[in-house]
Known about the structure:
Helix content is 31%, strand content 18%. The protein is an alpha+beta fold. It has a single domain, classed as Alpha-Beta Complex (Maf protein). Strands 1-2-3-4-5 form a 5-stranded mixed sheet. The longest helix is centred in the last third of the chain and has 20 residues, at 230-249. The protein is globular.
Amino acid sequence: MPKDNSSKYSLPIVLATGNEDKLREVRLILNSEVLSLKDAGVDSFDVDENKDSFEGNAMLKVEALLRDIKLEEFIVIADDSGLSVEALNGAPGVYSARYAALGDNILGGAKADSKANCAKLKAELEKKGLWGSFASFECAIAYAIKTQDKMYKDRLEKGKQESGVLRKSLSGVACVEERGSNGFGYDGMFYPSEEELRLDFTSKDDEKRFLETHKSLGELDPSEKNKISHRLKALKALEALFANYKARED
């Protein structure tokens, strides 16, 4: 890590997550130094993700970190991402990280481990007699910028764009068949495909043909995944926004 904690955006970037896999992925995509919570002097970070949208939960994390961060100047970013499965009416959606732990109270439940979440997703698809379903990985990236002379906490407050949320997605198929050991979360069950597919998710023949011609995110090495992922799309949009910000400041 650079001693001055610098990034290519002039200000230190802090990612609001305790997920080391996510931190590693964001660093690779941005090709820049991104500070962990510990690097930024934040000892504990626990946010009750109680919003019903990816955008809402991402901004919750940003707002929580703004209260705790010890740095004088910085860019804070936070993402909320998840898998939305068409056959399950969009589930697990915003509850992706705690899908297996959900009880009668839909907003309740602690985060569950990836193995348990994947097992529940498989079970829900199998209950419907399906080998898979059209699905999308969604990623919302929220951001806020603090400089020497101003803090942008709410873009509506001053009619400016120095804080806000961006959202992007990756289309594909969520399958009961889990493949690959790379990635994390539902990566082994998600097979990206931007092409228009016609599939019968009750047909074993269609399943066989699809799996023969597609790879899961878990089968891709990180460099391959980071060329197409939902998180890449959102972060690239954020990069473009930061470039505009720097141009205005210049």
